[in-house]
Every structure is written in C-alpha cells, then in structure tokens.
Amino acid sequence: MKFHLISLGCTKNTADSEFIANRFASAGWSWAEKPEMADLILINTCGFIKDAKEESLTTIMNNLSIKDNHPDIRVCVFGCLVKRYRAEIQSEIPEIDYLFEFLSEDQLKMLISLNSNNRLTPDYSQSWRFFTPSHIGILKIAEGCSNRCSYCAIPGIRGPFYSRPQAEILRDAQKLAASGAKEMSIVAQDITRYGTDIEGRCTLPALVRELSAVTGLEWLRLHYMHPRGLTPRLIDELYSIPKVLPYFDIPLQHVSKRILEAMNRHTSPEHLIRLIDHIRRNYPEGTIRTTFIVGFPGEQKRDFDKLIDFIEEHPLDRVGAFAYSEEEGTAAEKLKPRVRPSTRQARLDQLMTLQQLIVGEQNQKLLNRVVNVIVDEVQPERVLARTAGDAYEVDNVTTIAGKHKVKPGDIIRVRIVNADSYDFTAEMVA
Ligand code: SF4
Questions:
Q1: How much is the pTM?
Q2: How far is the CA of 87 from the centre of ligand 1 (A)?
Q3: Are the C-beta atoms of 77 and 96 separated by less than 8 Å?
Q4: 351, 369, 348, 361: which is closest to 413 by C-alpha?
C-alpha cells in the first residue's frame, strides 16, 4: 500500500513527520509522490497562528476532495490543529477517516496495520528522508514548552517542556548521519531548556558534545535559543564545540522593557544587548538570526521606536518579523489597548524595509571573502548552496554558476563575488 504525508508548520513538525514516514516505510509501505496516488493520505497540521490554521484547513479540504474521484483513499489528520480544535473538526468535517491529536504508538501501529502486506518485522536498519534532502537532518531534542510567552498558544497545544532521553536523540542522530546527513539542525521550542526538567540545569552542552562526535556529521546548527536561558558563558560552552556553526538563532521578539514584560519573556533589554555584544565581540564570523513581533497590545510609538533604534545600533543578520495576531486561549488575547491592524502593518513594513537595508550591508561583509558552503542542489548550469550563516529553507541561498563536480552535502570553498539582501553569488575556489 502507498502513503503520502503532508507536513505543515515548523521544523519540529517536520522531525515528527520524518519519524512517522520512516515507520511506514520500515513496515513496507511505499511512498506515493502525489496524494491521489496514495491509499492513505496523512496530514500533520499546524495550529500555531491564524495563517497556519487556515493553511491546515485548506490542505485538509483539498485532500478530502480527492476522495470524490478516489473513494477508497483514506485521509488521516493529526497534529497541533487537532489538539487545539478537535471537537470542532470532528463535527464540522466528518469526512476525515482518522482524526488524532498527536499520533500515539498504538495509533501509529493501527494505521500501519491497515496494510495487510506489511513486513512481519519492520526494517529499522534503514532511514529515509521524505521532507529534507538526505544531507540535511532535523533532530528534535525536546517536546513542549514551559516559557508561557503571553502571545503563544504552543504550551497549550504541546504541553510543558520535556527533554527527550539523550540516548534516544543520539540514536536518531546516528541514523540520520548513516543515511547521509552532513548538516544537522537541532530543534525544540527552546533548546536552552534541555535537561532542566531532568537535571534541574541546562545540559545542552553535554548533549551537543556527544552529537559532535557522531561520525559523518560535519555541521551542527543550533535553533530556537530563548534569550532568558542564554548567558555569555553558555554561548561560549556551546560554540566552542567542534562542528557547531557560528549561527545564533535567538528569538528576541521585542526590546522595550514594557513590552517584554507584557509578553512574559522573562528577560530585559540589558540582557539582550549583553548577549548581542558578547556574540559580536567573540564570534566575528557569527550570524545572528532573530524574530520580532510588532503591534503587541499596549505597544506605543516610543516602544516601537526603541525597537527601530535597537536594530540600527545592533545590526542583525537574519530577521523575521510578524504583526501581532490575537490567539484565542493566550494570556495576551485579553490585553488592552490593542494596536490598530493598520498600525501593526505599518510598523511591520517600516521595520522590514529598514532591515532589508541592514541585511544588505551585513551581507556586504562577505564580499570577496573565501568561505565554506554546503551544496544543496546541483543543477545543469549552476550549484545552489548555503554559507554557515544560512539555514536550509529559511535564510539566503548562494549560487555558483557553471558545471561543477560536486554533490549535495559536499562542503566546498567559494569566493563570494556578489551579495544582496537575501542571496549570494559565488565562484569556486580551487
Ligand atoms: S518560547 Fe515562548 S514563543 Fe516559543 S514556544 Fe515557548 S511559549 Fe511559545
């Protein structure tokens, strides 16, 4: 039997989808390139914010409509959207064949057993990649979140933070490396919390040191470090480990003291500046990625001006920004006064216009520099790659024109010959 899995939302969902798809493949199911060619369509939904919820619902309805011409196809829907709105989905979309929150082991086994031709003994020796190229692995090290940022629905969806056992994580990392992963993205809602629920302190450095020793891995990329859990000392411990890229993914969200408190971020503008300054002083090759939310309830012009001043005084390399959107069930939903949607949008536009200029200047620093890049794709007339400062499908792409004897996963040296706000052009260096 054939399955097709659609993975929506964040990299944590991608890691879950990769695990589930591998279980199906290990049991003898084959992958259907298109949903209409499958016997079972699985949709791993996202329920984080409005846009993501709408995308999940559209995806569900589109795939259910396939049943019109293929009535034997079964559709299974699970994940964050179901966790949040199970009753509504059950009553409003009864056409769904299997509806689960997060797939339990028994539910997964039940779905897999729909194929009577299953292998009696699943073949766990292999590891397939369905959602990323084989040279990239996504390693989820923990589940849930206990930070309770006032605007965020995730703690309500995914529950409190818990670290995955180190042995389990290392086993997954070895399997990913054995099946071709050269670059590993290490993800959770907040990786700085790793170990705190078990040992009462952050044991992330110990875990990363173990991962650094995994044969075959060459690049380790750390994601989602909440600034409250970060200190200059923890930064030095982590970024002195071999293979850890000088890529600092630290969601700041805002820099106004008043707004940080209203967001329940448990950090201060002084601490954020201390972290940024420490990175700039000690990691000159470092790339700082962050996100900001503008238009949060109570945000006054002076708060927003503080944010604009901050990004001018502390230029950041990779920035995503969002206009605040109310999420039901979050503490911030009740906060007043609300900022008019048009003002939120205007502030978002202003911030991103300025940030585009800043990123352009930051990227110029790489001009004529010889750097390592990892090859993602080899096309007939060019190679697509990324610098250490660019995460897969998130940040900049480096294009190397011409035909070159390289393959995905190769780490090669190039000279950056052009840099704009969002991409690099490079030439091979012998
Ligand atoms: S750190 Fe904050 S924003 Fe991130 S998942 Fe946890 S509660 Fe949500």
A1: 0.94
A2: 25
A3: yes
A4: 369
Q: pLDDT for 48-91, tens place per residue?
A: 888 999 999 999 999 999 999 999 999 999 999 999 999 999 99
Expressed in angstroms and rounded, the spacing between residue 312 Cα and the centre of ligand 1 is 26
Domains, the chain, with CATH or none: 2-112 (3.40.50.12160), 136-365 (3.80.30.20), 367-428 (2.40.50.140)
CA of 148 to the centre of ligand 1 (A): 6
Ligand 1 neighbours, Cβ below 6 Å, are: 145, 147-149, 152, 154-155, 189-190, 226
What's the CA-to-centroid distance between 358 and ligand 1, angstroms? 27
Check residue 122 and give its pLDDT: 72
Rounded CA gap, 225 and 186, in Å? 11
Confidence of residue 39 (pLDDT cuts 50, 70, 90): very high
Do residues 207 and 157 touch, judged by C-beta distance below 8 A?
no
Distance of CA 423 to the CA centre of its chain: 20
- Angstrom distance (rounded) from CA 338 to CA 269: 23
The end-to-end CA distance of the chain, in Å, is 48
* Site of tokens 């399997």: 175
Output the residue whose Cα is nearest ligand 1's atom 2: 149
Q: Whose CA is nearest to atom 5 of ligand 1?
A: 189
